[in-house]
Amino acid sequence: MRLADLQSSENLQQAEVYNNQGVELAEQGRLAEAIAAFHRAILIYPEYENAHNNLGLALGNQNKFAEAVAAFNRAIEINPRNFETYNNLGIALGSQGKFAEAIAAFNRAIQINPNDPVARQNLGVAFWSQGKVSQAVASLQKARELYAMQNNPTGMQEVEVILNQISLPPN
Predict the structure, then answer these.
(1) pLDDT tens string 116-159
(2) Contact of 56 with 22, CB cutoff 8 Å
(3) Disulfide-capable partner of 106 in 14, 16, 41, 123 (CB 3.0 to 4.6 Å)?
(4) Closest by CA position to 19, among listed 3, 47, 46, 40
């Protein structure tokens, strides 16, 4: 093993420690500390996709959606095949009212993993937010079907609540 490879491996291991610490801190609601831990992980190993993704999640939980989008985009540059990162990106974009961009991110997540009900559910909500009711209903029905195939009654119930809200007449 070359010295550079050994150093890179050690850096990744050290970055993983900070990333895991950040996840624990975020789960405790200590978001500022979590964000600092994710930044340390990224400083040590800039190509660490999970740290960028987790940073985006923590920033989103602080309603810092523009910064979250940047973190998710960096994670996608590192690994453009991670459907979860596209889903997270879509949520951050939708939270900023950028529904067309959110829809594109959710569609990319679905292209990568067509059997992910979460991205389809989020896509449906984004369509609904744009007033595209028929597309919203179709996406949500597909999400419900996928949740059923995965024997996930909680997911099915969440989708059912949204579908019922869509069918209610506006006040």
Answers:
(1) 999 999 999 999 999 999 999 999 999 999 999 999 999 999 99
(2) no
(3) 123
(4) 40
| Helix/strand/coil for 170 | coil
Neighbours of 113 (CB within 10 A): 15
Burial zone of 129 (CB within 10 Å; 0-12 exposed, 13-18 middle, 19+ buried): middle
Characterize 83-110 residue by residue with b for buried, 16 or more Cβ atoms within 10 angstroms of its Cβ, and e for exposed. Answer: bbbbbbbbbbbbeeebbebbbbbbbbbb
In this structure, what token pair is assigned to residue 45? Answer: 């190993």
Specify the amino acid at residue 117. Answer: P
- What separation, in Å, do the N-terminal and C-terminal C-alpha atoms of the chain show? 68
Tokens representing 152 are 């996930």
Q: C-alpha distances in angstroms, 59 versus 25, 31, 126, 127, 166?
A: 13, 8, 21, 24, 30
Q: How far is CA 7 from CA 38, 49, 59, 99, in A?
A: 20, 18, 30, 42
Task: Kindly report, residue by residue over 12-39, the tens digit of the pLDDT.
Answer: 999 999 999 999 999 999 999 999 999 9
What lies within 8 Å, CB to CB, of 96 at 6+ separation is 65, 66, 69
Report d(CA 126, CA 86) in Å as an integer: 14
In angstroms, how far apart are the furthest CA atoms of the chain? 68
